[in-house]
Amino acid sequence: RDTRTIWLTYRNATRKQRSPLNIGSQTQTIPLSAFSSKKTVFESAVLYLKDRERKNFHDIGILLQRDERNIWATYHRAKKKAAKQHE
Questions:
Q1: Looking at residues 2-9, what average pLDDT do you find?
Q2: What string of DSSP letters covers the chain?
Q3: I need a labelling partner for 36 at 20 to 30 A (CA). Which of 5, 6, 42, 66 fits?
């Protein structure tokens, strides 16, 4: 990834979330290699957790602190983009 993209994503995240994330007792790691594609960071995380870790949308939503419907939409949008690229 371009370092400018990473910096911009980090800056936007710190503006949106001023306090550190509370991960509680759950620890889930995602390897950096999952973020190497041109997908957004959020799409990359959702795809990794769904396809590689076999988590359901509800569990991913809890981990990422998002509604499971948002996770579902993001997953399917990323899958459509990937299918379109391979055509």
A1: 85
A2: --HHHHHHHHHHHHHH--SPP--TT------GGGG-SSS-HHHHHHHIIIIIS---HHHHHHHHTS-HHHHHHHHHHHHHHHHHHT-
A3: 66
